[in-house]
C-alpha cells in the first residue's frame, strides 16, 4: 500500500536538496504549484509520467520514492541501491561530519571516487582529516598522499600519525626530513632513527 505522506516527505526532501521551490519544481515538471503542494502534503500522488520525471530530476529510483522505508543518513549500502553514485558521494561530502562516516563509505567507493576525495583533502575543499582517512587508503593512495605532503603541497604535520606509517613510508619521511625538504620535525623513537 502506498503511503502518500511518506512519498510527500521524500518529494519535499529531494526538492530541498535540489534547492528548488515548489513553484520551480512545478515549472520543471509542467504542473501547477498546487499539484506539488498536494503531493508534498500527502493529499495526492503524481502520475506515473511525472513520477518518472521526478526520479530523473532528483536522481533517485522510483522504488525509493514509492517505498515506505526511510534511509539512515550513514547507510551508504542502501543509499547506493536507491540513488546514483554521484548523489551518494555528494551526500557524504556535504554531510555534517564526513570524518565520522569514512569507515561507512570509503570501501564502497571506486578508484576514481577515492582519488576525488583525496584530491579534495589536498585542495582543502573538504574537512576530512588525513589521519582519519589514512587507514582506509590502499598502498598507491598512501604513496600519492604522502608524496603530496612531503613535497609541501599539503601543509600537514605527519608526527601525529607517524605510527600509522609503514616502515618504508617512515624511511621516506626521515630521508625527506634529513635533507631539509620536509619542514616539520618527526617523532623520536627507538624503532627508527632520525
What is shown here, in short?
This protein is an all-alpha fold. It folds into 3 domains: 63 residues, lambda repressor-like DNA-binding domains (434 Repressor (Amino-terminal Domain)), CATH 1.10.260.40; 51 residues, no CATH class; 57 residues, no CATH class.
What does this structure look like?
The chain has 194 residues and is an all-alpha fold. It has 3 domains: 63 residues, 434 Repressor (Amino-terminal Domain) (Orthogonal Bundle), CATH 1.10.260.40; 51 residues, no CATH class; 57 residues, no CATH class. It is 55% helix and 0% strand. It is built from 12 helices and no strands. The protein starts with a helix and ends in a 16-residue tail after the last helix. The model has no long low-confidence stretch (mean pLDDT 89).
Secondary-structure map with pairings?
Blueprint: H1 4-17, H2 22-29, H3 33-40, H4 48-58, H5 62-66, H6 76-82, H7 85-93, H8 102-105, H9 111-122, H10 130-133, H11 139-150, H12 167-178
- Integer count of domains: 3
Spatial separation of the terminal alpha carbons: 68 Å
General shape: elongated
Instruction: Tell me roughly what share of residues is in helical segments.
Output: 40-55%
What are the secondary-structure elements, in order, as H or E? HHHHHHHHHHHH
Count of DSSP helices?
A: 12
Share of residues in strands: under 5%
CATH-level-2 architecture of the largest domain: Orthogonal Bundle
**What average pLDDT do the residues reach?**
89
* CATH class term of the largest domain: Mainly Alpha
> And the CATH topology of the largest domain?
434 Repressor (Amino-terminal Domain)
Runs in which pLDDT lies below 50 for 5 or more consecutive residues are none
CATH superfamily of the largest domain: lambda repressor-like DNA-binding domains
| Major β-sheet annotation | none
Given the helix and strand composition, which structural class is it?
mainly alpha
Number of strands: 0
* C-alpha Rg (nearest Å): 23 Å
